[in-house]
Amino acid sequence: MTTTHEDNDNAGWAVILGVSSGTGAAVAHALAQDPGLQIFGAHRGCYADQAAEVERAVQQTGRRIEMWVADAGTAEGAQQGAERLLQIAGERSVRMFVHSIASASMGQFVVGEDVLHPRQIEKTFNAMAHSFVHWARELYDANLLAPGARLLALNNPLDHTHLHNTGAVSASKAALEQYVHHLAIELGQEGFRVNMLKFGTVMTSALRHVYAPDTLQQLEEAHCRMNPAGRMCTVEEVARFVSVLAGDAAEWFNGATIDFTGGMNLKLIDLVLNPERHD
């Protein structure tokens, strides 16, 4: 079936932060396919080649995509992004907002050679937590949210684990969950829905950037042992479920932290309590 310009005008938009690679890229493609949204994607330009692939993939679905290269993890970035989106899409056009920014500093708080500088902590919280609030406010104030719009924060189990050097990420993700709860109350009375999707570790460019190849292989092997399915989740699986959350069947989710880890935490407990089963 051929998609016309009029179809695109009536499709509605998805705003995706961190769209150039990994989960954000997969979500853009999935939402363009189902429910057929146009894409406004923000990224910092670090993965230009992959961003170009995202553009091509979305365009092949017949939907429109607008890439906005900027730092979306700041209050200023949120304001500028909303202004740009208003020019492109107009009021009441955003049906889905997905916060998929992966920009964090790794290190310890007090003891060790890699102690985090206060600026690193501040930047991590801005990108991974505070920016969700900034974008929600700007989208609301600019009357960009369509009736029944969904706002979705992406999370991982790091908010309740204590993996070495991930303290700033853990703390910011815990703050993000609290933002989701409070925004669900504030915006719920307006007919909007705010939720968090928590999924296990997936292979992304950001992960490959942080870890050396041998460490990455060990990480993948460990996650295969932790998951009852015996493998890691994929970004495509996460993205397909985001499409579900964009649909009518998910309209009663609000303020929810949705577990999409595949039972990874259950197996992690078993690994600790019964290591002999996994030798």
Assign the CATH architecture. 3-Layer(aba) Sandwich
Task: Name the overall outline.
Answer: globular
- Element string (H = helix, E = strand): HEHEHEHEHEHEHHHEH
**Content-based structural category:** alpha/beta
- How is the biggest beta sheet arranged? 7 strands, parallel
Here the CATH topology equals: Rossmann fold
Our count of helices gives 10
The level-1 CATH class: Alpha Beta
In angstroms, what separates the terminal alpha carbons? 53 Å
Question: In what order do the strands lie side by side in the largest sheet?
Answer: 3-2-1-4-5-6-7
Helix content: 40-55%
User: What do we call the CATH homologous superfamily?
Assistant: NAD(P)-binding Rossmann-like Domain
Strand content: 15-25%
Number of folding domains? 1
Mean pLDDT across all residues, rounded? 89
Instruction: Give the total of beta strands.
Output: 7
Low-confidence stretches: 1-6
**How large is the radius of gyration?**
19 Å
